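Run: sequence + pyridoxal-5'-phosphate -> complex structure.
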Amino acid sequence: MKNIYLDNAATTPLRPEVIQTMMDVLQNDFGNPSSTHSFGRSAKSIIETSRKTIAKYLNCSAQEIIFTSSATEATNWILREMVKNNGIKKIITSKIEHHATLYTVLNLQKEFGIEVEYIKVLPNGNLDLFDFERKLNEEIPTLVTLMHVNNEIGTQLNIDTVSSICQKYKAIFHCDTVQSIGKVAIDLQKMPLDFLVASAHKFHGPKGIGFTFIRKNQSMQPMFYGGEQEKGLRAGTEAVHQIAGLAKAFELANEYMTEETKSISDLKSYCISELQSNFEGIIINGENTFYNILNVLLPFSEEKTALILFNLDMKGIAVSRGSACQSGSVKPSHVLAEFLSSDDIKKPSLRISFSHYNTKEEIDLLIESLKTI
Ligand code: PLP
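>> structure
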């Protein structure tokens, strides 16, 4: 049985070149980057070269990049830091953000009593930017935290518009670019956002490593104390092999971006047309969605909801759940719950997410398997 991986919004397989880079570092560069001898200097130089590689593709300065263990860590740190030490009194976000953002915001609200406002979600899964602007007020120090591409449905935020609205009202803008970075060009000289978070395992790099961009004018207190690593902001001996793997994955993602965008977009279009011709009444959840994420509401009965993922898994096909499990033991998706009707939310939705490793044959097998359910 051939395994088919169509869950690339959850995580991605590593590129062979990334594995090779990491193996080389593990074998040859075990020095502690804080040591001043040649072993240490060599490890340190891998970190700084990696930082420069990332900065080059994002068109920012290397000093503006800080390595973290994950995007979740970076988001927790930045939001807390802005509220605790930088006078933020209000956060504007949306209910369709990743839990890394939502739960952090809820905790900050509880702990510091800040005001939190959620932007209206339109019936097509996009945010109402008029509602967003109405929520801003120059008099209240405000942070806006919104994701670029939604990880469940793939809807996209217009970063340029949001950045300029934030500038108009002097609000800080933190953007979760986990699903988009490495898949679409980001030029930080043109996009005046203040913070960005990223995670290597979403662009064919290793897990447990990510980075954050912190614009030069933002002042940050350390996330951890106890060492001078990462400009003293994140103490702890660096995971040199992870950082090297992240930079290699980012470099390759950017170098192959044009051709991979095209092949993945073609694959998504093919999948949509095959689904539409085989399952009458299928609905795509979300409008104007990103090229590698497809979330569909299947015209199956509610009773089949629980069976679908199980049956696909038995056939070696990995996709992701889009909505409630029939048993009631799994909560409905907090994203779909924001814009689907109470009837539709009970029906089976699937998230199918693609990478350049997927093929049309794999889509055909997915369709064949769905037909047997
Ligand atoms: N934000 C989004 C949009 C994500 O999809 C994810 C991962 O699922 C995260 C944040 C969390 O990233 P990490 O795995 O680096 O903590």
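>> summary
The mean pLDDT is 95. The chain has two domains: 4-13+257-371, 16-255.
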